[in-house]
Amino acid sequence: MMMGPLRFLSVPLMCGVRFLSSGAVSRAGSKWRLGVGLSKSGSGYGPLTDRPDWSFADGTPAPPLKGQIRRRMESEKMARRIVMLTNEMERGKERWTEQQERLQRQEEERQLNLPIPKGWKGGSLRAKSPTKSAA
């Protein structure tokens, strides 16, 4: 016996569908936090995140948690990158200044090596244009 296409797929299902979104909840208060100088989320940085949760009774601090170690390493990596980029910018500024000075010296040398214009009569050779005789 040959069966036709499945018909139950064409029947619309009338089920109640609820859409849940956690996006707004996870960002609740982020504008306020940013406005007062805190991190976008509550666990980004600050004393509640970076300080240990507990300490021993004798006062010795607790060993750092994995998240604290990771955040410390990320901070150190970012600091090293900032120092490296700052040094790179300083070297670039120095090279640009040296290049501008070299170009200025080359231009001055070129001006000194210009031939003396025809009909030049006294005075500074390169400061003024040649005088024209009155016709």
Write the layout of secondary structure elements.
Layout: H1 23-26, H2 30-35, H3 47-50, H4 66-112
Quick gist of this model?
The protein is an all-alpha fold and 135 residues long. The chain has helices at 23-26, 30-35, 47-50, 66-112. The protein is elongated, with a radius of gyration of 38 Å.
Describe the structure.
The chain is mostly helical. Among the domains are: 31-63, no CATH class; 65-113. Helices cover 45% and strands 0% of the residues. It contains four helices and no strands. The protein has helices at 23-26, 30-35, 47-50, 66-112. The longest helix is centred in the middle third of the chain and has 47 residues, at 66-112. The model has no long low-confidence stretch (mean pLDDT 77).
Quantity of strands, as a count: 0
Unreliable spans: none
Helix count?
A: 4
Shape: elongated
Gap between N and C termini: 120 Å
Q: Using only CA atoms, what is the Rg?
A: 38 Å
Q: Which whole number gives the mean pLDDT?
A: 77
Helix content: 40-55%
**Secondary-structure element series:** HHHH
User: Strand fraction band?
Assistant: under 5%
Structural class: mainly alpha
Q: Give the biggest sheet.
A: none
